Task: structure prediction
Amino acid sequence: MADREQFCRRWEGAIESTQVPLQFVWGMADPVSGAHVADRIRARLPGARLVELTDVGHYPQLEAPERVLPEILRMMHL
Result:
């Protein structure tokens, strides 16, 4: 977790200043970076799409791939 503290401003700055459309498929049940981080995403990136998977944890792509893939394809307009 030390790297999060060390590079926090750098990482957040990159995400907040990008011109690339952002979409997050978020595991809300993640005890480390779940619902409370999703709240920060909403507040700091109001233009980003946030898909909440309420019953999914830290690895949505592994825990619920059947729900993650359609969101990725939707983002890619496929």
The longest helix spans residues 2-17. The longest strand covers residues 23-27. The radius of gyration is 13 Å.
